[in-house]
Amino acid sequence: MPPASFYFSLQFAHAKFASDNAFQEAAGLSVELEVEEIREGGQNMYKHRFPTGAKYGNLVLKRGFVSQGSKLAVWCQATTTTDFSRPIETFDVLLRLLDSSGFALATWAFLDAYPIKWSLSDFRAQENALAIETLEFAYSMFRRE
After folding, report:
1. ∠ at Cα 35 (33, 41), nearest 5°?
2. What is the value of pTM for the model shown?
């Protein structure tokens, strides 16, 4: 039986916000091989297709809005509003899919991740919904550990 996708853990390696990593959703685990198409002179039936490298999606994390004391949110704000006078601080992100006893069935490492987008869900007085914070990260690559 395939494992349930709702039981996972997330960790920012070597970060100072280890307790600030509870998320309700993680998305963006995708990679595709980019190809370059080249036409051969006189050959109109097809194009040659050559691999050029991997293309990764962004890692998107969602959680209930943390209003105070979030070192992760402070890092995200500092990075997304940077003036580039200092290098952007990156962290490896470890995403683990867990079984019912908390044992890691699979682990993915997102290397050199940094925040590129922060957003907060809309406020609607007519709905009884939680404020959801969305953090989006770029990274150099991911691999299954």
Report:
1. 165
2. 0.82
